[in-house]
Structures
1.
Amino acid sequence: MRVYLNFNYLKLTMNTGFVGIGSMGGMLVRALLRSRALRVEYVWAANRSEGKLDALAAEFPGLHTASNRQLAANCDLIFLCVKAGDAASVLAQMDSDLYPGQLLVTTASQIPLQVLEDRVPCRVAKLIPSITQEIGAGVALLMHGSRATADDHTLLEDLLGRISHPIVIAESWSRPAIGLASGGPAFVAYLLQSMAEQAARSNPDFPPELALSLVQETASATLRLMADAHMNPEEVIRRVALPGGMTALGIEALSRYVPQAWQAVFRESAEREKSARDRLVL
């Protein structure tokens, strides 16, 4: 019979560290603390900029600020929230205090799990969060290293489940999955903004702020419709874009250009990531 860790006990006793509290690292620690997934007195943070550390400590009294080495010496669960290019120097500072009993989670998509496992004695995993975790929503992508235990899987999935919908994927799927889950909010926001801008430009008397409001409300309602009425995108299109109508004409125009644009997005991002991965040295 599988034995699960008591997460409520662990969150009281496990020191959890965050190395790097920039855009994603800062969002992650704040989301986990605000959701009470972690207790502040067991949270440690290290960062190159002391100003960001001071601001975080002021926001969450009781949080421990530390050097990278101090954090490694005191934490059982460590989130490495630095860019792939900075990981080597950060790990060098932590080397003497890392040990096999720790779980090290990188948020850098370009660092292969096997490379990280070869570099550190810890068990490892990879987490790709999304900005939507600021409101406790959206997908967080998880990839587990070969040394990670079933209890590690349970711990991370339970912890992240307090602020997201965690989905475990194979590392080989990471690039398209990251584009959809982590890059997706930016892509969707850009498409909505572009749609509103072009609608406003099509009629000089049409207020741009009204165009954006209509797009945002329509997007929100469409997602609710799909969820509540169990409708897939194809069915929504069929119901709205009636043959011979103006919406059908618009869909036809989009079909000539949008798929090619998405092909470029995923192809070029995959090429860029492969190039960065090939140059990576830990």
Note: The first helix runs from residue 7 to 13.
2.
Amino acid sequence: MQQLALDGVSKSYGEVAALDGISFTVDDGEFFALLGPSAAGKTTTLRVICGLERPEAGRVTFEQADLTYAPVQGRPMAMIFQTFALYPHMSVRNNLSYALRTEGVGRAEVRRRVDEVGEMLRIGHTLERLPSTLSGGEQQRVAIGRALVRRPRLLLLDEPLTNLDAKLRHDTRAEFKRLHRELGTTMIYATPDQLEALTMGQRIAVIRDGRIVQSGTPDELYDRPDDDFVAGLVGAPTINLLPAQRAGGANAVALPFAEITGGPWAAALDAFAGGTKLLFGVRPHDLKPATEMPGGPCFEATVHLTEPLGDVTVLDLVAGGQQVKMVLPEEQAVHYAVGQSLSVEMALENTHVFARDTGTAIR
């Protein structure tokens, strides 16, 4: 059931358009990710939803109520910011209980809720300590608890893991997923990190320059990107985007090192004249050393660099003057050294073609 909807929301700061007619919906109990680079409009979107900013156009509805210009107070939602923003002179318990006390919640109920959240987030042993005595991960849990103790029906998270180190980010991602599963609270998670969005979001909206360019499940964004921006943003290592052109005479794409025919985009090439400039996309995981009887198109390449990543290795190849990345299992990659030549096969069914002038997917 739809819980939140943004319809044509626009917001400007002077001559800078932070949001340009964005629209999306979030279902009740969904973990929804808002993915985009810095200054794309993620934070402004969350601030409009919670009422900290007023849009110049569009509507924000929550549970069928129009909240576009409703005051911040009374909205059934809470926001967790990029910075922990804890009161340094207050104990953890007082940080957690402050909002409840200002709302006039009874003392016994405040203590019960704080103790409950402390146990849920595994920070019960820190309740009488000051924030300065806590680790970064513990401070982040306090910030989460301060929002959860209010029992919001919608939780907004604005890049909450940015200030944590890699291990803590990994652990806290798992914590958010656990909390979402246990509480069932609707969450909107804004992040520039595609790994966070893919691993946590049930659906993802990709935002760029204040506009939603595509939304869907992680698999939909990975397998069927609508343009080269989404293709390059989703997936690690990033997709290989290679200059190409429409080959004359057949529904084929000419790369600097090969001519590719018969892909899922082949029929759509009828709309383009020979010589039209294109981008050809193939993900590093969809390349492999060619066998004696390859199932897809092949090209010759030379190993330029190897990047060991534990159980896998990224091979940086050079083919026709273009750099191409390929991912192999570590036990297979050890057979290839810098300067070695090899024949590479691609999974044709997983390739993409984009119009170079607009970036739009051709399919």
Note: Residues 166-183 form the longest helix (18 residues).
